[in-house]
Structure formats: structure tokens, C-alpha cells
Amino acid sequence: MLLPATLFLWSIYWTQAASSQPHILVIVADDYGWNDIGYHGSEIKTPTLDQLAKEGVKLENYYVQPICSPTRSQLLTGRYQIHTGLQHSIIWWSQDSGLPSDSPTIAEKLKHAGYKTHAVGKWHLGFARVGYLPTSKGFDTFYGFWGGSESYSGHISCDDLHWSHVNHSRVCGLDLRDNLAIDRSQTGHYSTHLFTEKAIDIVHQHDKTKPLFLYLPYQAPHAPMEVPKKYEDMYSNIKDVNRRIYAGMVTCMDEGIKNVTNAFKKAGLWDDTILVFTTDNGGSIKNHGSNWPLRGGKGTLFEGGVRGAAFVHGNRLAKKGYVNKELMHVSDWYPTFVNLAKGSLQGTKPLDGFDQWNTISHGAKSHRTELLHNIDPLQVWGNRAFDDTFDNRVSAAIRVGDWKLLTGQYEGRPESKEWGKRPEGQGHGVVGRSSGQTNKVVRTSSGQKSIMLYNIRDDPEERHDVSAQHPTVVRHLLDRLKHYNQTMVPVHYPPGDVNALPNKHGGVWTHWL
Ligand SMILES: *[C@@H]1O[C@H](CO)[C@@H](O)[C@H](O)[C@H]1NC(C)=O
Ligand SMILES: *[C@@H]1O[C@H](CO)[C@@H](O)[C@H](O)[C@H]1NC(C)=O
Ligand SMILES: *[C@@H]1O[C@H](CO)[C@@H](O)[C@H](O)[C@H]1NC(C)=O
């Protein structure tokens, strides 16, 4: 009778382990390219990420949104941008915008389930009002910056008032917060080191009887190009100075992630931690990221903008060390985490994400067969093809099975015709400033119908538009876009407010409404 008794005890042990709430660590890299992670064959060294991914599950058919605020909004709410009003551009510093109050965040859900919730790094989901801030959106604590980008050591971000007709001088301000308090003490401290240290402090101070949710959106490797010399010097083989700095920024982040995971181990939390690593969007080609061999980059709906480098690590994975090719999306984390945490999905509006745990952990088929990449009614281009379905002049993209349809893509954008080869002679560029805060971009064109169809399984590089050969597929996907368009809420994209500017607030970016 000894054997069955032992088995019985084992089964109790495993049931308890699996029924407890795992710690959840979500690490987001910023503007991190498909070809900038070691295991995709990059020249950039990421030994920590490579090892973690090798021990876990690499997600190779996983999508994010093409720019910062949208991906973060979907990660935190589980809902598409067309359902939160954030379908156009990012949230700019001076805009009165944030996550809508009808969409509780993952932090609120996990907090409700008993988790301690902390965020360290970049917020970029609005700060005009206290109600938009991370500490009002379910995080017990926040350390980091509220805007979209800034200098890594000075913690200063600038607005060039490009949206103002009056005054085009640059206005700069400090953006570094310890909860609500401005932190002036870290000038000169490189943010990858700073955020790593703050994350480690949280891990060390954590009460082990409680489950931990740590959201760690690093600033790296977003522009500006800035890294301590030590990391840049690791890449004397790379000739282009900006790519060399970018590579250093990535390797420094990789080291930070090693330090954070070591802290989890030291604190005895690691064995029951689920780590998700994801980029927020594809690499920015003008800022020295590479998405090769994918087409396009940050800001485009081509694969280089939306197919994200990502993996999952954790003892709870039933199947480990494999590549998962099931269709997944950043909005899927929300129900996946809430269910892992034994939380409740009640009280949310209909989610666009799917619980993917079974898919990730067992390799089961994904529940997701469709993915709306976006519909942005404020970007319009081309000629209308059909009167009785989705207006293809509107910028949109959708994936149904292996098919991907893009509409309204402005064909003059150089990024849309890039397959990872960076144009020569580009300077630093100004951070995230390529798209103006205009209200509507309408470009006229002659003859272009502005519909593109790709079979992503056969042609992941989007080199062969097959829309002419597959009119029925085109029509079906346009009808699906029409369906999604019918569920869309109005775009929330208010004009910038001069009262936001730091010169009105003692040189800091702060909530002003
Ligand atoms: C433009 O804005 C800057 C910064 O706020 C200010 O110093 C300058 O005086 C303004 N210029 C004009 C012409 O209003
Ligand atoms: C990681 O930890 C080592 C050892 O404490 C330290 O020298 C290094 O600067 C840390 N790296 C980062 C990115 O925090
Ligand atoms: C989306 O739906 C709205 C409201 O029915 C309609 O006015 C608009 O033309 C539709 N957009 C597209 C791109 O079809």
C-alpha cells in the first residue's frame, strides 16, 4: 500500500502547487526589433533572454500593436483600441487622454484577487489627470516616467509644440516619479540600471505570503541613443555608431533582466513565477532597430511593426523548451493572467483577448482565429473599391487564419518598403516625433486602390500582394473589418493643451487637470 499512499501525497502536493496563485512578472522592451534578440540570429548579445526563452516557450506567431500607447493599453485592458477610443496615434504629453474608466486594468483585477501590484518603468497611458495614473489604475506603487520617451540619464523629455500654431520652441521637463512625488535625485543614473534596482527593491521587500504582480516596462532600447560606454564598447565590431549604441542598450537591458530574475531566485519567488517577456512594437527603423527579414517597422501595420519578439518562462509550463506557432496577441494576456491568478473576469466590457494558457503550456490550438490589427479612421488614403463593405481608404489591417488584409496604407512611407535594411545617412532623429498631432491625415492618390492581401504563412515577409488573385478572400476580410467597424467607439484624440507644458509647472511634467 506504500506506493498508492506516496502517489496520493504527490497528487496533493501538485494540486496545491497548481492551485496557488503564481507570481507574475511582465517585462516589456520598448521599440525592440524582431531581429534584435539573440535567438533570432541577431548580432546583438542577449544571453539572459536566450537562456530564459530556451527554458520556456518562444512565441513565434505573436502580435503586438505598431506603437507604444496602443500596445500598453491592450496589455492592461485586454481590449482592442477600437473599443477604448485609442485607435489613433499615441497619447501625447499634452493631451487629456488615458485608459477609459469602463475598462478595469489587469492590475486592478489582480489586486482584487489578492496580489501586490507594482509597476516600474514607462507608463505612457496618460497623465493629464490623477485618475489616469498607474497608482489610480490598480498599481500599489509606481516608479518611473509617465510620458512616452525621455533621456535615459537626465530623465528629461521635450515637447517641440509641433501641434501649436503659435510657438514652436522646445519645452523640456523632468519626468521621473516615485508614486506621485517627483524624484529629482537620479540625474545621471541610467534608467536601465535605475529601474532594475527599483524592481529588485520591490522583490526584496515583498511579503512572500502574498502573490506578486510586477510590471516592468523598460525604457530600452527606445531612442534617444544613449548607453554607458562599457556596453557600447562590447560592440566594436559594429561600424555604425548608432547601431552600436542600440546594441549596447539591448545588452544592458539583458543584464538588468538577469539581475531581476536573480533577485526573484534569492527571495525564493522564482520557482512559482510566470515570466512574460514582450516587445511593445517592432523596432523603429529610423532609430536603429532591425526587424529583418520582416517588412516595415514601428508605426506600420506590416509584420515588422506588429509581429513581436516574446516568450514565456515558468515552472508551471507543462511543455517547455519549444517554439509555439499558434496565433496570439498582446490583448490575450489579460484573461490569461486573470485566470491563472484565480481572479474574476466579471465587471469588464467584452474582452478581445483569449485565455491562452492551454495553448502556451500544452501547445493546444489557439482559440484565436482572427486578429484585428487596428482600424484608424483618422488615417485615410487611396480610392474606395466597394460601396457596400468596409471603406478601404481607412487605414486598417486584419488577420483571418493565414490571410492578412491591409487597407488605406499610405504607400509613400519609406518604412513600409523596408525589409530590415536601414537607409544610410540617417541621423539621430527626434524621438517619436515623426507623426504630427494633426487631426486627420487625408492623402489623395491616383489609381491606387489601397488594398493589400498576403498569405502570412507562405509569405511572412509580405513581398507578394495577392489581392488580385483572391477577390473572394479580399471581400471576406473587408466584411470582417466592416463587422469590427460597427463595434467601434469614437476616437478620443483631443488637441494638445498648452497648460500641460512644464514651463508652467516648475520644469516638470505633471498632471494639470
Ligand atoms: C515660446 O515658448 C517659450 C517656452 O515657453 C518661451 O520662452 C518664449 O518666450 C515663447 N515665445 C513666444 C514668441 O511666445
Ligand atoms: C546587474 O548587477 C551587477 C552586479 O550587481 C551590476 O554591476 C550591474 O550594473 C547590474 N546591471 C543592471 C543593468 O542593473
Ligand atoms: C464605420 O462605421 C461608421 C458608422 O456606421 C461609418 O460611418 C463608417 O463609414 C464606417 N467606416 C468604414 C471604414 O467603413
Largest sheet: 10 strands, mixed
Uncertain runs: 10-17, 421-439, 441-446
Terminal-residue CA separation: 71 Å
Ligands, deduplicated: 2-acetamido-2-deoxy-beta-D-glucopyranose
- Shape type: globular
Q: Kindly report the spatial arrangement of strands forming the biggest sheet.
A: 9-8-5-4-10-1-11-12-2-13
In percent, how much strand structure appears in the residues? 15-25%
CATH class of the largest domain: Alpha Beta
Report on this model:
The protein is α/β, with parallel strands linked by helices and 513 residues long. It folds into 2 domains: 22-362, Alkaline Phosphatase, subunit A (3-Layer(aba) Sandwich), CATH 3.40.720; 370-486, Arylsulfatase, C-terminal domain. It is built from 11 helices and 19 strands. It has helices at residues 2-19, 47-55, 68-77, 106-112, 191-205, 229-232, 241-266, 303-306, 333-340, 357-362, 471-486; strands at residues 23-29, 57-59, 62-63, 116-122, 141-145, 156-159, 171-174, 177-178, 181-182, 212-217, 273-279, 310-313, 322-324, 328-329, 370-381, 394-400, 403-407, 441-443, 451-455. It has a 10-stranded mixed β-sheet with strand order 9-8-5-4-10-1-11-12-2-13, with helices on both faces. The protein has a 5-stranded mixed β-sheet with strand order 18-15-16-17-19, with helices on one face. Strands 3-14 form a two-stranded parallel sheet. A hairpin with a 2-residue loop joins strand 16 and strand 17 (403-407). Helix 5 runs parallel beside helix 7 (241-266). The longest helix is centred in the middle third of the chain and has 26 residues, at 241-266. The radius of gyration is 22 Å and the shape is globular. The N and C termini lie far apart (71 Å). Mean pLDDT is 91; it is low at 10-17, 421-439 and 441-446. Bound molecules: 2-acetamido-2-deoxy-beta-D-glucopyranose (NAG) (3 copies). The site of one 2-acetamido-2-deoxy-beta-D-glucopyranose has 7 residues, from helix 5 and helix 7.
